[in-house]
């Protein structure tokens, strides 16, 4: 095996637990070189785990001075180590990009020597791509916690998205498995970059030629299921970060056991909490696109998301007074709260009802999940029912319908005890 | 009544023109090559006349705007006869004053039109994603594809902007034509009859760049390494990368 191939194998393998994959949101144009950013983002392929491959996601090196128990590249872990040279990363990126394999580069790194040394090396790659190769494709750069503001600011002028991982949802969880890290080291650069983005935008209003600064914004990631935080705590943190730091995305990464070294962590062989991760993303979407407030879905009385049913359905079952919603008269914002109706369908409904009252067969054809939605909506030919069906009954009916369709294994529940 | 046209978009627009000029309704637009025709129905051959087609196109743009007018071109590229008919119905509605007919999702024609539009747009997006260039010894980046719909005209602009500093060729194996970019402009290319005959053994004649195989190999390596075995989910995988695309994907070959 060639050395470059071995490096790629090690450093792609080490980077894959970072779930951030998006290549959207940037406005970078091709200015007499190669490449541009696609506003919607493009997933160039999908691995067998069903995750998209949009960017060449690699670490610069997996040498690291830290020893975080959940991380595959931690100092004490016995894995092969490698490091790319600046030229190697540039050569790989350009050749993959020209063949339309990728949408751009996702560059992260273990921390060797110190934060600034690592950040400076990453910055050199980014600058070489932009200046020498005249590359205008997408670049996602990890901010190294503790790197100086000058370096972070300079990097921001060349990249499309920056991100820095919270790693674990709470400070308490972090102390358990990564005592050398804390959330403040994450919040500081997030704040700094956020303020820079704002000030560059302000400046652009006055001076047209202001350069673009991190046009696709910032994101972060939390590992789920490694430490005992409940869903309410996780979503509270996510909600705060969306509000306070204007993040474009918060990613939730179900913990995949990689060693048995730390007794606090789930051991090898336990299944990753995939269903729980999915429920968290659904909640995330409800908060950002469906006008839900966090306390409607999760609150001190309901600290766990239901693994059997999605959070919107779960909310609906707890709030029967909100239903049935008449799709022929209700507001768009009320229609998107019906389980089984998404934003696209809701938009179609609101437009189509101008031409006449909608019937069940029309809703079905439009593509709503009618078997779920039928308990919560009213349309032109809905039968008249006295009183409300019991929500217990509705839940049972929907679940048995689902089970009939695909009997799936439900992953073990979240941790409740230390 | 059947309107027979030459299979081009301009010809299709001329059918709309013709039906208004002759005040004929219940039109089914088909091409000369379509054979499954009801023997007992009337038919009329519509000759493509560019000025007429342009009048229809301009009239459409004035009524519903440029962006929405291109939706009809996209749906036309689906090559789906039922979608053509839905398209024809909607166009007639628009020209008789129902400009908002596209929102009437309760109507079968309108719903079908929007579904086909979505399919074509999805295929267009997939081609942006799934095209894989190989580099030949003379520096040409070429790719073979077999899209479900005739979407090459819809991705030409995208590739021209992105890969502006290198010559490339995207060839549609199903429809036997391709787009060639010479670093200045995009042109349509077709293989000559002699070349088509040679197509039993295509690509043998092309000498590859010496490092091309290396990067294909590295890409496969990366694709394998970035997969998380513990999360394997083939159902989702196949949903995103249906098997029919595997033939031309380096990492799935």
UniProtKB/TrEMBL annotation, chain A:
Record keyword Cell wall biogenesis/degradation present: no
Cofactor: [4Fe-4S] cluster
GO molecular function: catalytic activity; iron-sulfur cluster binding; metal ion binding
Pfam families documented for this protein: Radical_SAM (PF04055)
Alphabetic keyword roster: Iron, Iron-sulfur, Metal-binding, S-adenosyl-L-methionine
Taxonomy, superkingdom: Bacteria
Keyword Iron-sulfur recorded: yes
Residue ranges annotated for the Radical SAM core domain, each copy included: 59-188
InterPro entries xref list: Aldolase_TIM, DNA_rSAM_put, Endo/Exo/Phosphatase_dom_1, rSAM, rSAM_sf, RuvA_2-like
Protein name per its UniProtKB record: Putative DNA modification/repair radical SAM protein
Species this protein is from: Sphingobacterium phlebotomi
From TrEMBL, chain B:
Every DUF4130 domain range: 84-251
InterPro entries the record matches: DNA_repair_put, DUF4130
Pfam families in alphabetical order: DUF4130
Protein name listed in UniProt: DNA metabolism protein
């Amino acid at each position: 095996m060639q050395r470059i191939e071995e490096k790629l194998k090690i450093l792609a393998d080490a980077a894959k637990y970072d779930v951030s994959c998006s290549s959207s949101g940037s406005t970078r144009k091709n200015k007499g070189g190669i490449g541009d950013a696609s506003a919607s983002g493009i997933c160039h392929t999908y691995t067998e785990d069903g995750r998209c491959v949009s960017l060449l996601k690699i670490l610069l090196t997996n040498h690291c001075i830290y020893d975080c128990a959940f991380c595959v590249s931690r100092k004490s872990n016995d894995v092969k180590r490698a490091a790319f040279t600046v030229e190697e990363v540039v050569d790989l990126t350009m050749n993959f990009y020209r063949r339309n394999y990728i949408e751009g580069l996702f560059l992260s790194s273990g921390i060797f020597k110190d934060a600034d040394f690592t950040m400076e090396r990453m910055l050199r790659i980014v600058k070489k791509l932009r200046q020498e190769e005249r590359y205008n494709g997408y670049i996602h750069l990890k901010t190294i916690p503790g790197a100086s503001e000058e370096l972070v600011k300079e990097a921001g002028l060349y990249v499309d998205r920056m991100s820095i991982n919270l790693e674990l949802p709470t400070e308490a969880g972090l102390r358990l498995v990564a005592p050398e890290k804390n959330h403040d080291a994450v919040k500081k650069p997030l704040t700094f970059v956020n303020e820079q983005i704002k000030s560059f935008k302000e400046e652009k209003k006055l001076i047209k030629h202001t350069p673009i600064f991190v046009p696709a914004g910032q994101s972060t990631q939390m590992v789920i299921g490694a430490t005992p935080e409940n869903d309410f705590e996780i979503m509270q943190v996510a909600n705060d970060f969306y509000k306070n730091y204007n993040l474009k995305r918060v990613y939730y990464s179900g913990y995949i056991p990689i060693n048995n070294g730390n007794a606090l962590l789930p051991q090898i062989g336990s299944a990753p909490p995939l269903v729980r991760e999915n429920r968290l993303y659904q909640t995330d979407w409800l908060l950002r696109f469906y006008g839900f407030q966090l306390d409607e879905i999760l609150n001190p009385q309901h600290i766990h998301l239901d693994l059997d049913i999605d959070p919107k359905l779960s909310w609906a079952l707890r709030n029967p007074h909100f239903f049935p919603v008449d799709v022929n008269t209700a507001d768009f914002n009320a229609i998107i709260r019906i389980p089984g109706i998404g934003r696209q369908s809701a938009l179609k409904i609101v437009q189509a009802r101008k031409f006449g009252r909608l019937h069940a067969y029309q809703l079905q054809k439009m593509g709503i999940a009618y078997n779920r939605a039928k308990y919560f909506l009213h349309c032109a030919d809905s039968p008249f029912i006295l009183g409300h069906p019991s929500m217990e009954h509705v839940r049972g009916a929907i679940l048995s319908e689902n089970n009939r369709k695909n009997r799936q294994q439900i992953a073990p529940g979240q941790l409740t005890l230390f | 009544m059947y309107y027979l046209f030459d299979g081009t978009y301009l010809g299709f627009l001329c059918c709309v023109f013709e039906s208004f000029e002759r005040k004929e309704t219940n039109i089914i637009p088909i091409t000369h090559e379509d054979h499954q025709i009801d023997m007992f129905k009337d038919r009329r051959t519509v000759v493509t006349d560019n000025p007429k087609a342009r009048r229809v196109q301009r009239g459409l743009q004035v009524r519903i705007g440029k962006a929405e007018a291109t939706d009809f071109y996209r749906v036309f590229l689906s090559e789906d006869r039922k979608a053509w008919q839905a398209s024809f119905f909607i166009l007639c509605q628009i020209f008789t004053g129902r400009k908002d007919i596209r929102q009437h999702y309760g109507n079968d024609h309108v719903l079908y039109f929007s579904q086909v539009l979505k399919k074509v747009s999805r295929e267009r997006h997939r081609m942006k994603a799934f095209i894989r260039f190989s580099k030949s010894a003379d520096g040409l980046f070429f790719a073979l594809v077999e899209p479900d719909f005739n979407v090459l005209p819809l991705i030409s602009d995208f590739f021209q902007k992105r890969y502006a500093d290198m010559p490339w060729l995207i060839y549609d194996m199903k429809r036997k034509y391709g787009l060639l970019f010479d670093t200045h402009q995009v042109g349509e290319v077709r293989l000559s009859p002699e070349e088509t005959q040679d197509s039993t053994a295509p690509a043998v004649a092309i000498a590859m760049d010496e490092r091309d195989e290396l990067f294909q190999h590295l890409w496969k390596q990366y694709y394998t390494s970035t997969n998380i075995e513990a999360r394997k989910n083939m159902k989702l995988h196949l949903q995103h990368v249906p098997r029919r695309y595997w033939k031309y994907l380096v990492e799935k070959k």
